[in-house]
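Section handout 9: paired folding examples.
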Amino acid sequence: MLGALIVIDGVLVWRDLQPARVEVLAARDLLRKALQPNAFATPEKRAVSRGKITRALAKLTTARARIAGSNAISVVAFVPGLREQRAGMLMLLDDARSATTAVNNLLDSAESLIYRGQSRAGAVPLDSLQTMLDETDEAGTVLRTVQRRSSGLWGPLGDARHQLDGVAAAAAERLRQTSSALRGAYGFFGAHGPRRYLLTMMNNAEMRDEGMILSYGVVRFDQGEVHLDRRGTISDLRLDVPVSTAIPPGTEAIFGSSRPTALWQSVNATADFDWSRQTMAEMYRQATGETIDGVISLDIPGLAEVLTVIGPVKVAGIPKPISASNAGRVLLKDLYDGLSRSAPQGERREHLDEVVGAVFDRLANEKPDLVRLATALARASSGGHLRLWSTAPDEQQAFVQSGLSGGPSAVEPDRTFHLAVENRTATKLDYYVQPSVHQEVRFTGPNDVLVRTIVTIDNRAPSGAAASYQLGPDEYSARPGDYTAWVLLWGPAGAIQPASTSEAGLTLTEAIVSVEPGERRDVVFDTLIHDAVRHGELTLRLVPQPRLRPMDLTVSLDSRGRRVEGSTTWHGAWNQTRRMTWGVKPG
């Protein structure tokens, strides 16, 4: 009789448990969508996120009521080994509700920031920014504390617990990065007194590790108010002698001949962002006698992200408005069409400083949606199109932690790759050049891997074109459209690469290849990483070069001789840092 009762109760438990599980999984999916990176980007998306959060809370409330009110499930509270399951189920639902409520509070703070920001044009509401920072920290704390991987739930509910923990962990990491950025931004925006920053505009038609610096501005923040005090072409900031900034040995060996402490056009050839920005600050001081508090770097794709929020701007000398959709083509191609290499410098202006002036005028005199603007800038920073550097150590540390600053070696240097294709001519050919990358990974020992990186340089410049300022030829090329690619692969710190040098905290190997118009050429690098498999995992971290169009990236893992957890092939746009992780067990 007792056995029959247990069987009957088990059937009733399952009957009551299944609807609750459906509600939990539906709430999880709603919460995951509400926490997507762009979920707060526009008023419409915030309204959709609010609706998802409200529905998730309703489903969780219903699921808890089902379980708490189920007589069958209450009975298991008296059965040894099962009482923990009921308690775990209720804890799962309480944790999910706590996480969802924290996200809802964060959305309230975002709405408050928008409302306060729109009451004052050209200013960041620092008090609301502080409130949002507090709410972000609190939400992150909640999302970390609800992760209970040792809860011991069985079967489908155990899976639900595991999936909720995964959602919470990913969201907590995004909030940690957001919190670091907000914490650094609070002082950066002049909360403690006026700040002045050098704004360097990077031209992606002539690539260094980033675009070449051809225009600049001086941005001032004071209690959240933003002003563009000065702008011009980089040739205005003349240097008679190199600055005294020490050049690290590896940087000197690879880039020293290009005079990175004397020429603005060479200062950012290295991947060491912090070194190049410190050097820029010293170059500006030597050229003007003025000290600055940091550097803001923005390229054309980053500028296009800002234009998605503020709309097109008109600039004298450019016949059509500059918009998010046409900024790359107009600024990096159309303005060069018809220009000869012998044209006077005044006719060869890139107009970037005028565009920057128009953008800042719009920001100062209108009332953009600040959360939408922050989301656009976050997209730009994820691809390296926006970078910040501050002389204040605590702000700089916050920017490094959030990914807004620091070179490729700032995180996991012994697992990091970075690739740059730089222009060795004086042309503006990078508008036409499209590199792609294929990494082939295979095991060479118990824990060692060999990574073969195949870089394909595709020169899409027109064949047989007339000589021009954009296409050349110049003193480094024979015909219009001839491209000389300086291909630089930074492999993990401590890795073995032929003909390598330690640079920017990583292992650098270079190659130079000439590519004619319409031609594709491959460059191959081999990297041996000892002890790449640690604690049963293989991880590679891949940091992109910020180009007008992101490189195409393929990573394939040869799993022969190993049992590998996770897909062995990844393909997509290399538009942000990609972290590849595989579980690895002996075959």
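Moving on to protein 2 of 2.
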Amino acid sequence: MQTTHALTPRLANLQSWRYGITTQIVRVADFLRAHGYSNAETEATFDALTSRANRARVNIVFIAESGRGKSELINALFFADLGRRLLPSGEKHGTRCITEVRFDRSRSTGLSVLPVETREAPRRFADIYRDASQWQHLAFDADNAESVADAFAALAETRRVTVADAVSLGLHVDSLRNASNEDGWVDVPRWRYAIVNFPHPLLDAGLVVIDTPGLAALTAEPEFGRENIPAADAVVVVLDADEGVTKPDLAIWKEKLGGSRNFREREKDDSGQARIVVLNKIDLLYVADSMDAKEADRKWLREVDKRVQDVANLMRIEPIKVIPVSAQLALRGIFDADQDAQLKSRLYRLERALATYLPQHPEAKLGKDILSTLSSTIESIQATLDKSRFDALEGLHALGEIRKKNLAMSEALAREAGDRRVQVEAALEEMRAIKPIHAKLTGELASLSSPSIAKSDAAATAKLVSGALMASKISEILVGYFALTRQHISAIEAKLDEIRTVFGNVGEKHFRLIGIGHFEVHPFATQRFRTEVDKAEEAVRNELLSGSTLLRRSSSIAEEFESSIASRVVHVFEIAHRETNAWMRGVFTGIERPVEEINKRLSGRAERVEQIRSAELDLAEKIADLQASVDVIKSKHAELGVLREGLDRFSGRSRRDE
């Protein structure tokens, strides 16, 4: 019998791919760190890429109801070289929770279990799975069979709880009842999920075996069935050769593996997932014939073939996907070095089927994503280097031109700056002359818009109203008040027009003087003030000049006018006063700021002239520095080329492997 497992080449390819892709990640990351391109974001990106690459595994999910010999099959298929059973098997020792068998060198050897009570938490299973605080860890010595067995005994542990508690945990009560249960009580698994971290060559190479104990476990963990099973590379459904396809088996096949009635169509999907049905315990179908052993073998083979065909018909799959085996016979044959028993167990056929049907390069898409990220990183650095090289060469060219024309350029700039300076100085002198005019007009405008005018008018009007004896006289006084208010607003508008005219002419003259285009004083909108005065007058007509209101004493009307009407008009003047002051400041700033900016630019230009003149002293040193920078950039370009070639070689090799 061959000693190399049929999956070894597939796992070796995966291991080689992981080493190759992580090597590419490390090389690019090292380049970034060495040349100062690395930061917290890039470090996090490379850590994430490495983590994704290291998580690439060959995941095989085994599904079966209890008593199908699933754990025995896993032991025989993957771990028989240990010379002992790894997973506990048998009715009393079978696993009661979904168990994931893997090996991660970064974690300690042992058994991690997730308490069933975590089902009560309102969280997704995936979130709880990633939360290290939710797990309990049972350490064991991988080289000590007794230590391993003691730890693995936890996989079969149960707790007796009431039916109500079982229902609150989301467990299917009917599947938990048995003859030994007392009324009102059921035995539930103590653990919800288990992860075995065990050092074994196949596991170390990337194999992950997931043992799911039947329909009840999958029903209790719908998220696992919905997400993890479709994501597996292979799904192996284990049946009992004597029982054939039972109702729970069909339920698992239909509900958890696709839902299609025609599973030949299901197998045509593009997931690449291997789906195999194992008919276990075929040794129990053998009936010894004392007269003719060969005839007994022939009868046994015919019976096995018949059972295979029956299963294929019921499950609507190709008979080649139904593999008859005897896990118990295989284990005994391996432990006893009995080759006949190993051949008769047909376990080698299941090994070959897995190796044949497993997707050969499921990591190809992940590899493309990682290589794309690395390529984008290299291209980004390449673009940065190209810009740096361009800037350096441009600097060299500029310095060369300076060397040729430095003197002429300095004189031209100085002459131009001098001419411009004369213009600006003249403009600044004019600005100093304008300031008194601006201050005078600002004061006049402030006087016209002063709230004190509105307050004085309001007080005088209230006094007249208070002394009036006739309703018609009160109406006349109030109409006069609003007419006077509008005259004040008209005076403000007239002053604003005057200011716009004065400063429009001044600004236009200055802008022509310094050559910066057209100047315009933006208008100040006063219509809103008139609108507010109109509203106040409307309020007077409605509130103070109505028939019922005029029956009151004139002193009462005067008080109401002053408190509710005049206050609104005063507020209008307060706004006008504040905003016209701001507008006046803006008018002067609009003329002053461009001159100041030009003055600053002229100062900067003068400094530039001085820099150009002083550059002659260290021009040679600067050219040498820039040339050295170009040489460094060329060296980095060469390193990037090597990185790019490495990615291309790895990408090409991956495509050939596909």
